[in-house]
Amino acid sequence: MVPPPHNGPSQLFLWGRIRAWARLLFRRETPWKVKLILASAIVYLLSPFDLVPDWIAGFGLLDDLTIVSLLVAWAIRVAGTAKQKK
Predict the structure, then answer these.
(1) Phi-psi sector, 15: left (phi>0), alpha (psi -120 to 50), beta
(2) Is there a contact between 25 and 35 (Cβ–Cβ < 8 Å)?
(3) DSSP character for 30?
(4) pLDDT by residue (tens digit) across 40-55?
(5) Of 8, 13, 22, 30, which one has the greatest count of Cβ atoms within 10 A?
(6) Is the pTM of this model over 0.90?
(7) 80: in domain
(8) Which residues form the domain of 73?
């Protein structure tokens, strides 16, 4: 994986979160539902098709951030409930 840029503590925090989500995605014991949700977040983030086009000032990136954040939060919640059931 590419090392994080050294621009500030907030970026280091973000890279650490992304690494944690990637580990969750590729872990064998992660439920398939969590993997599907995380993969959907990645596909949406990388997809050229958005709910709000990126060229609209501010709102284009804001919808990406909102949807990906909601999907990741949902995946974490599903992973937590799956862990409690075991």
Answers:
(1) alpha
(2) yes
(3) S
(4) 888 887 787 777 877 7
(5) 30
(6) no
(7) yes
(8) 29-85
